[in-house]
Amino acid sequence: MTPPNRFRRIAQDEADRLEEPVEAAAALANKLGLDPYPVNYWVVDHDEMNQLIAYGGFQRRYPHWRWGMTYDRQKKQDQFGMGKAFEIVNNDDPSHAFLQESNSLADQKAVITHVEAHADFFRNNEWFSRFSGDGDLDAAAMLARHAETIQRYVDDPDIDQEDIERFVDAVTCLEDTIDQHQPLAAERDTERTQPEDLRERLDGMDLSDTVQGEVFDDEWLDELAEAEAAAANLDRPRSDVLGFLSDHGMVYDEEAGEAVEMESWQKDVLDLLRREAYYFAPQKLTKTMNEGWAAYWESLMMGEERFAGQDEFLTYADHQSRVLGSPGMNPYKLGKQLWEYVENTTNRREVADKLLRVEGITWRNFHDAIDFETVQSGLAPHPAIDEIRSDTLSDLAALPEDDPRVDWETLDRTLSAPESVDADRYPWKVLTYEGLAERHFSLVKPQYRGFLERIRRSELEQLSRYMFDDAKFESVDEAIAAVDRTAGWERMREVRESHNDVTFVDAFLSPEFVESNDYFTYEYTRSTGDFRVASTDPDDVKKKLLLQFTNFGKPTIAVFDDNFENRGELLLGHRYNGVMLDLDQAEDVLERVHQLWGRPVNLMTIRKEYDEHDVEVARRRNREPEPTEVGVRIRYDGSEFEEFDLDPELEERIQASDVDYDTKPDEWLS
């Protein structure tokens, strides 16, 4: 149905209203050192926004019932006030951002600044480049091609539509069982490992026929070869389950009651959906980093740099507080706080490094010798940079003509033609990156007063130990003047380039961060039947978060054997890291895997069992009962499930390390 013209006019009027803020936000992002993809902005109504959310941020996707389910859920959230969508942006070059036409101007500006930061993250984080490599990124076109291909199969009278839907269901159920730490174009391990045959070694040992026949008979050699082949396979589990099924999988033919080769359309659909899984993987891997990055720069632009007008700021502040104040594990809040911590600790080290070079100041007397109020005042931005208005531009012009903090070309134009640049509305236009870094140096912000003073003696000692530059300052003022105000932002960009959520939390979630931000863990307790605070220990908080981020927070599954017990059965292993599988869901997944393997499938995992007497005793003593961990193998043959005790050797093979978060690729910047 074509929408009435009056709705088209509403969208066009909103687009016209936003043209100037869009251009200004892109210019400000560039001034702040961001390097985003070009962004195309589209104004849509709330129903179109719900459709885009259902499609993962794109206008065309392959036909499947899941999109309708997501759309219905999002529509109900919108109708009943359970959450409003303000924007959606996709990882593409150029990126496409969709703004809801009913948003207030304050919300639209917040969205635009948020989007510019997302586009910068998409372009510069190496985990995203692992999908596109050196090629051009055109995700919208790729997804549209996939949609057209699968639609052709749906329209093909020779292919049963229900078969397509069941097949897509099976593949999408496994979309997170890829090796997200390898590039999409990486060569897949398609061959079974075959150890050296002992017969070849015996032939070169010059043994007599009698000895060889009695000690190394053919039956024994066959059994040894089978055992060694199985063990070699188990030693090299393959993480890309979808890729493995694409290379070796078959399908179960219900009429024939056996496995048959995949048809060409099935191979094609599996490969297309696997490619889409790889495209969306970086967004899942960096959700907290990415949202925190966008929230940080949005807050700086909208609030500190006054991109929100005076009549818009309260609306913006209210909505921002709701986003950051959402309960539970909030990626916007955690991510923003971690980025601020990266900035603050870097700036603190930069200032401490300079102060330790002052004659008479050492790591031992640092806290006694330094007047932190004086340092705080010295770090404050120059008044001409801090207070920029149309009536103070002459103060900026009075600075030395080679001052790198001033955008002299823009300032000259503003002074000669005041109407060309609105300095009251956009003061940042007359500053450079260096000027903005001084204007927003984190350690002088009210909320971070005292952060420098809290530096630990151990950190000061470490700084002194590796201080190879013998440059010295005669006074504290001289040292402060040498502080690089861009240090924090530079470090943030370095971190943005190479980390994902797991390595980000592992590297920067320190005891100081946990304590100052009051983070804690909570768990379901068997003894009381409810959720309670489990620990405030920083190590426990970090471990909990790392477990939550590893493999998108999903169980890690790998292929251990494709010929288990020499019967052509598939053996999968759950990398057990102390978190038990939901066994009902695991059985549902095994049914889907069976559709793509065509033969019986097995899953190794570890189950926690509790003795009722131990639970009762623990309840009385207000503590948690200790579970017994039992290795199990679940087998599905296409009609029924069986459960077996897991061989101790196999149980040992699926045990992950204490925390399974070793997610760095072999070459970080490949």
TrEMBL record:
Residue stretches making up the SpoVR-like C-terminal domain: 555-606
Segments forming domain SpoVR protein-like N-terminal: 15-353, 485-552
Family annotation (InterPro entries): Spore_V_R (IPR007390), SpoVR-like_C (IPR057008), SpoVR_N (IPR056174)
Highest taxon above the source species: Archaea
Coiled coil location: none
Pfam families recorded: SpoVR, SpoVR_C
PANTHER family: STAGE V SPORULATION PROTEIN R
Record-given protein name: Stage V sporulation protein R
Lineage, uppermost ranks: Archaea, Methanobacteriati, Methanobacteriota, Stenosarchaea group, Halobacteria
